[in-house]
Amino acid sequence: MSKKFLIATFLLGIAVYFIGQYFFKNVSKSFFCIAEKKVEFNLIFKPVEEKDLSLLYTWFQKPHVVEWWPVPKKEEDFFNSFLKRIRDGVVPYIVLSDNRPIGYIQSYDIAQSKKHAWLPPLPGKIIGIDQFIGEPDCLGKGIGTLFIKKFVKNLIDKNNDITVIVDPEPNNFAAIRCYEKVGFKKFGEYTTPWGPALLMIYEVGNPD
């Protein structure tokens, strides 16, 4: 092995070392900063209007929605059932992300709902919420967690003497994980008129 080859190998090793040090101190740092940067969405809750019903009907027919929230398949029957929901005290909203309709959320006063007689005694005024993401390309991006968290905060800002609940099916694991990220805690499984449900209660004071 020649002396020139050994010197070249030594110098190459030094160069690789310093390049590596530069990468980890600068390039990798920039990469991880980008990875940790939170994506922000401009989320707005728009009260449902008559012109929104066709969009809602389309969303309710999506496989990822109808699996957990079955509704009439005929458009006219869907409209009638939705109007009945509003007459029963449900307050419905379209969720907008950067002015694009991407989902649905509703709230209702449990005291006005005969379907919730199964609930155990809970403190304060009880408000139930239900929701889903309608646009498939918005799934799995954390948007649901963000808009539910914002919606719950809006409810509590208006009246902090309330208890906010959700009641997903016990095997709807994706929804349950989402609710836990928002700040809901499992309270127990109950038998309801529409089948088994996992009662989850929002704990005020959960960190964002």
Can you put this structure into words, describing what you see?
By secondary structure, the chain is α+β, with helices and mostly antiparallel strands. It has 2 domains: 1-37; 43-202, Aminopeptidase. It has helices at 3-36, 53-60, 63-66, 75-87, 143-158, 173-182, and strands spanning 43-47, 90-97, 100-109, 125-133, 162-166, 184-192, 195-202. Strand 6 (184-192) and strand 7 form a beta hairpin. Helix 5 (143-158) crosses helix 6 (173-182). The protein is globular, with a radius of gyration of 25 Å. The model is unreliable at 27-37 (pLDDT under 50).
Number of strands: 7
Give me the number of helical elements.
6
Computed over alpha carbons, the radius of gyration is 25 Å
List unreliable stretches of 5+ residues: 27-37
For the largest sheet, list the strands in their spatial order. Answer: 1-2-3-4-5-7-6
Q: How does the overall form come out from the CA principal axes? A: globular
Beta-strand percentage?
A: 25-35%
